[in-house]
Amino acid sequence: MRTRVVFNQKGGVGKSSITVNLAAISAYQGLKTLVIDLDPQANSSQYLLGDDATYSVDKPALEPNIENYFEEVLGATQSKAGLLGNAIGSLLKNRSKGLESYVHQTPFKQLDVIPASPSLGALAHALEAKHKIYKLRDALKLLEGKYDRVYIDTPPAFNFFTLSALIAADRVLIPFDCDVFSKRALQSLIENVIETQDDHNDQLEIEGIVVNQYQAQAKLPREVVQQLKDEGLPVLENMLPPSVLMKESHHQNQPLIYLAKDHKLTQAYLSLFNEIEQK
């Protein structure tokens, strides 16, 4: 089983789109694939499950979800009021569950998802205080043999959940938008990954930087990408062009490989998938 985390501390760089579309291609090609959504915005969950995973003031988040799993990790069930129960019977019952209990099938063959929850972040302090940073890694080990690929979408921050994902993963993909602000943010991002490698997960590899929204005819994107390469950063050769098709894909809750297999953007994703799979 190969586990990839898609991580960037900067928002709006296409993390969820990249996570879902690479995972969908993986499943389309016959690999049993799981998406774990650790971003409270739940974009990956909604992309794959549509209205079922869409929440609002009067519509609660889809359950079971990843927040429920971390409640289990804490050994209690969080009530809607935000209080932690401590019934021993509930604790013993919950301890027997693993990540499989929180999986939802998507409409796409071979592709499952553990959805996110908007209130996930409220658990971070309690999880940190009880030193639960390795629990996601340990739970994923129990899925060995049940999935071929796992893709983890992360929040746009370096927090408990992002660190848990990096500790649990074999490889990290870094989405990158071609602008100066994204380039400036790369240094601290890579420093965080290297520190995680040193302190928690010496098996973690930076698989590469995924250049998103790349306009080959424009001067600035070409210059920025060349600067990254000149600095020795692992820029993946297959870059993703901008296209209105991505918005249509989100709107229809259809990954590109199912919506428009022969489109230029879909073909770029296929080439990117083949590149990382050959590494």
Lateral arrangement of strands in the main beta sheet? 3-4-2-5-1-6-7
**Biggest sheet descriptor:** 7 strands, mixed
Alpha-carbon distance between the termini? 15 Å
Helical fraction equals 40-55%
Assign the structural class, choosing from mainly alpha, mainly beta, alpha/beta, alpha+beta, or little secondary structure: alpha/beta
In short:
By secondary structure, the protein is of the alpha/beta class. The protein has helices at 15-28, 43-49, 66-74, 88-95, 124-129, 135-141, 160-168, 180-199, 219-230, 245-252, 256-259, 264-277, and strands at residues 2-6, 33-37, 104-105, 111-114, 149-153, 171-177, 205-212. The radius of gyration is 19 Å and the shape is globular.
Give descriptors for this structure:
seven-stranded mixed sheet, Chromosome partitioning protein, 279 residues, P-loop_NTPase, Rossmann fold, globular, alpha/beta, 7 strands
Describe this structure in words.
This is Chromosome partitioning protein. InterPro entries: AAA_dom (IPR025669), DNA_Partitioning_ATPase (IPR050678), P-loop_NTPase (IPR027417). It holds the Pfam family AAA_31. This protein is an alpha/beta fold and about 280 residues long. Strands 3-4-2-5-1-6-7 form a seven-stranded mixed beta sheet, with helices on both faces. Helix 8 links the parallel strand 6 (about 170-175) and strand 7. Helix 1 (about 15-30) packs across helix 2 (about 45-50), helix 1 crosses helix 12 (about 265-275) and helix 6 packs parallel to helix 7 (about 160-170). It contains twelve helices and seven strands. It has a single domain (about 1-70, about 105-275), classed as Rossmann fold (3-Layer(aba) Sandwich), CATH 3.40.50.300. It is globular and about 55 Å long. It has helices at about 15-30, 45-50, 65-75, 90-95, 125-130, 135-140, 160-170, 180-200, 220-230, 245-250, 255-260, 265-275; strands at about 1-5, 35, 105, 110-115, 150-155, 170-175, 205-210.
